[in-house]
Amino acid sequence: MTSILQDREGVLWFGTGGGVSQYDGQKFITFTVKDGLAGNDVRTIFQDREGHLWFGTVGGGVSRYSGQTLTTFTTKDGLAGDLVSSTVQDQEGYLWFSTSSGYSSHGKGVSRYDGQEFVTLTTEDGLASNSMSSVLKDRDGHLWFGTSKGVSRYDGKTFTTFTTQEGLADNYVNSIIQDREGDIWVGTPGGVSRYDGKTFTTFTTQDGLANHRIRSIFQDREGRIWISTFSGLNLYDGRTFMTFTTQDGLAGNFVESIIQDREGFLWFSTVNGVSRYDGRTFITFTTQDGLVNNQGSSLLQDREGCLWFSTGGGVSRYDGQTFQTLTRQDGLVGNWVESIFQDREGNIWFGTTNGVTRFRPPAPSPPPIFIDAVIADRRYEGVSELSIPSTGGVTILEFHGMSFKTRPDAMVYRYRLRGYEEEWKTTRERRVEYHDLPIGDYVFEVVAVDRDLVYSEQPATVKVTVVPDPRIEALTEALSGASGEFVGTSEALRKVQTQLSWVAQTDVVALILGETGTGKGLAARAVHAMSEERDGPFIQVNCGAIPEGLVESELFGHEKGAFTCATSRKLGKVEVAEGGTLFLDEIGDMPIEAQTRLLRLLEERTFERVGGTETLKAEARVIAATNRGLAQMVSEGKFREDLYFRVTTFPVRMPPLRERREDIPLLAAYFMERMASHLNKEVSHLTSDALALLRTYDWPGNIRELEHAVQRAVIVCRGPALRAEDITLEFGKAGSAPAEEVVTLEEHERRYIQSVLDRTGWAIRGPDGAAAILGLHEATLRSRMKKLGILRPQA
User: Fold this and answer.
1) How much is the pLDDT for 745?
2) Which pLDDT value is given to residue 787?
3) In 80-174, beta strands by DSSP E
């Protein structure tokens, strides 16, 4: 499909490679060479002031249709050449045809038709070249011909030719436009030239153009000139050039077409997607956003304000919120869409390589939308309101829309979870997932969008309340030992408590050092509780548990669009901790890039969100902790030296358990009582043998290891006393140095399950079986045994 035109009577005409077709709203009538058409390959369609239609063909000349008969003109009738590339009518009513000779690239000049005869004008008459690429009629009625050897202006009597000698950038002219001030802009392979009626001013890469090879020129409503080149896009504001490329957010450097919509946004179709420019930034849309194909060609805004994008894989329509697509599956005759046209009745016509398709927007029929289920700790169906426990897992919402005119897989859905996100998102899936929803109240809303961009009348909603899981709360309380108090009376512990009270009264950064399991987190909470920030939040960040690329976003937050998945603004932990304490656990694991921004935070108390420009003030106290040797890391280049001196102003070392053995009986009794209370078991004391075993062990895992050992012992003990044989130590016999063996978490789990099985005589089911002791379902335990390769030993 090469051209589409609607004549004054409303009849549509389609130029194709097999003739020209007329559509009167009911049927097609096709004209070919058998009916008198000059040639079947119709390149241009033009209607003159008298209402005659002119069909320019490739190799056959031009045909005039008066409404009843076709009259053909060729070189025999005075036409300069048989390949007609463009037609224009001047102010005197003369018709001008730019031509070539057959399929040759060598032009034959331009022909003027006065209604009776053709007059051919060539280089002998002053035309720059007989081979033409573009024709323009300016406001004064003058004709401009872009040729391969310059640009020629015809004032009704004579030609005036301009070349590089007159200031033209290059003699090969690609495009010509006239701006609102009346200046003529000429695009060439050597740059762009502006003619003000007297002289040419030429702009090239030295003046700021992205590339001197010009593709097209466009003027927006504000009068700015946009120039598409082979290496990017240029904006000329009357004084200077500004260049935009993919580095600035443009979808692709090769721009195929440009339009400006009703809101003033500029749209650029490229071979890598389509971009919208709001005067400050580019927003790019690709197949990931719903565009049917990234290779775009033409753009159209219809009367309803929707934008249409023709691509090599179908056509996409965008209403400002949602993309919908039309392909061969929806009735499009071909997916390679070359042109889009809207007729006077509002129908949209798509010219494809396989034919033409008419799209007639039907009467709106809003698709109903239904929420099928909410899946959290279990599956909930047909509910409008529910409470789910905060298990820290995945919450899934399933839904579907219905439409008789849209395939199920072609439906689009708009959704949001109010209370968690305010912006609407788009998906083509019939389910969405949310991970680790915080405790709170939320409302999920979803609407369906059919093929015609008709939305559901009302969103389907479900209210979801995330509440604390009483089982998790009880278990956490029992296992954590986070009472906020230290347990013990040793000299080493009293010394640490004194140091923590000192640093709590200041605003310096407290650095808590110590091996894993010594209670660094408890020490940080103690500083917070004794400080002026005690009424504010205590926000803990495990620097080693955050993926390296997300550390800065987690700490300082990010703006919408800062990176691919940043669909909305997110506050970082620094802002969330305002008025309280920010605890940076395992600071030694922080990437070196993030350390730079942390240093600024500590020294200047300011920061910016990732992707943002606003400088924000930090209003939180900072406490850090690590089990690593920071001084050694500085010498190895893994930790910034300036940050090291900044965080080591007041270090506090937590003593390992082997240095405070006198506290072991108190700690063991404390953990025993808490675990027994949680399990509702009557375990009242530890035997002397059990205490002796605990005192002589070296505790490489420190207090945490002691806590876990006591918890396991309470689980397996069978009476009121916790005995030595109930205690399983991780790294060997008491009194010996811990083995150097380091095992994986999976191996640790395998060994622990096998030890419980040994204690129960490999009984799995029943109240005293291993499954009950471990708190697992029998089938789950058997599955874990199979995965871990745990087999019962042969008798």
Assistant:
1) 62
2) 80
3) 83-89, 95-100, 107-113, 118-121, 132-137, 143-147, 150-154, 159-162
Number of domains making up the chain: 4
Nearest partner of 736 among 696, 705, 701, judged by Cα: 696
Whether 403 and 496 map to the same domain: the answer is no
* Residue 155 dihedral angles phi and psi, to the nearest 5°: -100, 10
Q: Of 607, 627, 653, which one is at a domain's C-terminal end?
A: 653
Render 530-542 in DSSP notation, one character per residue.
Answer: HSTTTTS-EEEEE
Predicted confidence (pLDDT) at residue 54 exceeds the cutoff of 50: yes
Whether 249 is covered by a domain: the verdict is no
51, two tokens: 């209402």
Note whether 690 and 647 are same-domain residues.
no
Residues 696 and 574 in one domain: no
For every residue of 739-790, DSSP letters joined together read P-----HHHHHHHHHHHHHHHTTT--SSTTSHHHHHT--HHHHHHHHHHHT-
Q: Could you tell me if 574 and 604 lie in one domain?
A: yes
Tell me the C-alpha distance between 129 and 123, whole Å. 6
Question: Does residue 633 belong to any structural domain of this protein?
Answer: yes
Is residue 246 situated within a structural domain?
Answer: no
pLDDT 10s digits, 572-591: 888 888 889 999 999 998 88
| Band of pLDDT at residue 743, cut at 50, 70 and 90 | low
Encoded amino acid at 511, one letter: L
The sheet that has 42-47: what strands, in order across it?
42-47, 53-57, 62-65, 70-73
Domain region containing 636: 491-653
* Domain shared by 528 and 643, yes or no: yes
Same domain, 628 and 497: yes
* pTM, rounded to two decimals: 0.53
Q: How far apart are CA 617 and CA 597, in angstroms?
A: 13
The 10s digit of each residue's pLDDT in 434-492 is 988 888 999 999 999 998 899 999 999 999 999 875 444 433 333 333 445 688 888 88
Q: 115-121 long-range CB contacts below 8 Å, 24 or more apart?
A: 117/78, 118/73, 118/77, 118/78, 118/79, 118/80, 119/78, 120/78, 120/79, 120/80, 121/80, 121/154, 121/159
Hey, how many other C-beta atoms are within 10 angstroms of the C-beta on 179? Answer: 14
CATH at residue 585: 3.40.50.300
And the tokens for 107? Answer: 């032009």
> Do 647 and 672 belong to one domain?
no
Strand-pairing partners, residue 731, are: none
Residue type, position 44, single letter: T
Please name the residue that has the structure tokens 């505790």: 699
Do 626 and 670 lie in one domain? The reply is no
Average pLDDT value for residue range 621-634 = 92
